[in-house]
Write a structure and sequence with these properties.
single chain; about 240 residues; alpha/beta; six-stranded parallel beta sheet; globular
Length: about 240
């Protein structure tokens, strides 16, 4: 019971994330705002303020995926059907691929484009690259012909380059933005809250897209518009 409980807790959290990813996808198409929906869900005492309801490009790291896989493995060994848990695992595996698709919707072909990524390690506050979804996303964008630049205050540049030699590392978001067609925020690092958006607009190259996959700078959307940058959140229109 203790072992299954451990797997079940993380699988439940993962299911909450996959649920809000589905809701975010619906919001994109019907003109709703996933942040408002998440707030309404958290206001229900049966769900609560700490609920895992943050729309993003998927959950990184090995913990949630590990426990999902453990339950899936146990179910297969006992010939049990668990489609809900299996679909949560599949949803998260597919989630990062939407980034390149959205970029192509906004920019057209990515061949010859320069894309900047804010965040490359697997979560805020750690230099760890193992199980990093931003690293996977970077590779997917590169495969479509774009040059990818990265800045992450937590990263070890030598480890990043070792993991993906084609990535170009920067220490300053404004330097990274020089001639970028699009910038993607993949991690909600506090350091990114204070980006000089006006300077960002001066440095970027048209069409100047800022894709905020965490809705972290949603409140600054007017400033992006004033700087000539199209702000795009995730599950928010």
């Amino acid at each position: 019971s203790a072992e299954v409980s451990k797997h079940a807790v993380n699988s439940f959290l993962a299911a909450s994330l996959s649920f809000i990813y589905d809701i975010a996808d619906i919001c994109e198409k019907v003109g709703a705002n996933v942040a408002d929906v998440a707030a309404a869900l958290r206001a229900d005492r049966r769900i609560g303020q700490e609920a895992y309801l943050d729309a993003s490009t998927g959950f990184s790291g090995g913990t949630l995926a590990r426990d999902l896989k453990a339950l899936i493995r146990q179910a297969k060994e006992k010939s049990i059907s668990i489609p809900v848990i299996e679909s949560v695992f599949e949803k998260n595996n597919a989630r990062p691929l939407m980034v390149a698709r959205i970029l192509e919707e906004e920019l057209g072909s990515l061949k010859g484009k320069t894309i900047g990524l804010l965040g490359i390690t697997y979560k805020v506050g750690t230099p760890v690259l193992r199980h990093s979804l931003p690293l996977k996303i970077a590779g997917d964008i590169q495969e479509r012909g774009a040059a990818v630049r990265v800045v992450d205050p937590c990263s070890n540049p030598s480890e990043v380059v070792s993991a993906n030699p084609a990535l170009k590392m920067f220490t300053d978001p404004l330097a990274l933005a020089k001639d970028c067609h699009a910038i993607i925020l993949l991690k909600s690092c506090g350091e990114f809250r204070d980006i000089d958006i006006a300077e960002l607009g001066k440095n970027m190259r048209a069409p100047k897209l800022f894709f905020d996959t965490r809705n972290f700078l949603r409140d600054k959307e007017p400033a992006f518009g004033a700087a000539g940058i199209k702000y795009r959140g995730l599950g928010c229109v």
